[in-house]
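Memo to structure team: turn this sequence into structure tokens by end of day. - J.P.
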Amino acid sequence: MGEREATETSSLPADGRVTEGRGEAVPRRFLRARMDLMKAYRFSVIIEGDGDGFFAQFPELQGCYTQGKTYDEALRNIRDAVRLHLEDRLEKGEPIPKPSSVKLASLEIAV
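Reply from structure team:
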């Protein structure tokens, strides 16, 4: 076992299993193999703040939104939400929408 591998496994539980996002315990080697096969996606995220916290959404993924008391919490929550949303689409064989540009504009309106 190499030095790097020894360092990585030394922090693992005695059974060598890692708890994944959905609470499933999987051996570390399977997790590494799965990560090698994973594809990275980049989408635009919109985070809006108001007096009660922050609301985050992905325009390309309808129905994928969350909130948080702080900006950082909303960002963490939307990262989890989109990962679960994409995993669900992939499991069902549904296509992943292509990322598109989100344009932000500012309008001055006289009333």
